[in-house]
Amino acid sequence: MSFVRKLGVAAAAVTLLGVSNAPAFAAGTGEVGTQAVPSCVGVEIFTHTFSREAVVLNNCSSSQRVKVLWAYAADSSCMVIPAGSARSDSAAKPNRFDGLVSC
Question: I need a surface site. Which of 54, 73, 74, 76 has the fewest CB within 10 A?
Fold first, then answer.
C-alpha cells in the first residue's frame, strides 16, 4: 500500500497522536482562538535522530491552508496543500507536535 494511501486510510480512522518513537497519526487539532483544520486533513509524525517531521495529507476535495504547530520550536509557515497532496515540515529536537490549524 502506498504511503499516500496509508495516510488516507489513517485519516479515515482519525486516531489520536501517541507519544513514542514510532510514527503516529493525528487528526488536525486546534488551539483556543484558532480555527481547526477539517477532519479530512491528516498528519503523520516521524521521529528522526535530531528532528521530528510532520507530513500533512489533504484528503479533502479542495485545497487547504494549514500551519503545523510545534512546542519548543518555531511553527511552520502557512502551507497551501492542494486536494490529494501532501506537504511536510520539520523541527529540530527537542520539540513536540502540538497540532494543526487553518491559516
Answer: 74
CB-neighbour burial class of residue 11 (10 A; exposed 0-12, middle 13-18, buried 19+):
buried
In whole angstroms, give the CA distance from residue 94 to residue 87: 22
Average pLDDT, the chain: 78
Q: Where is 46: in which H helix or E strand?
A: strand 41-47
The three cell numbers of residue 52 are 521530528
User: Are residues 67 and 100 in contact, defined by beta-carbon separation less than 8 angstroms?
Assistant: yes
Instruction: Determine the Cα angle at 92 with ends 13 and 79, to 5°.
Output: 55
Say if CB 91 and CB 52 are below 8 A apart: yes
Read off the pTM: 0.67
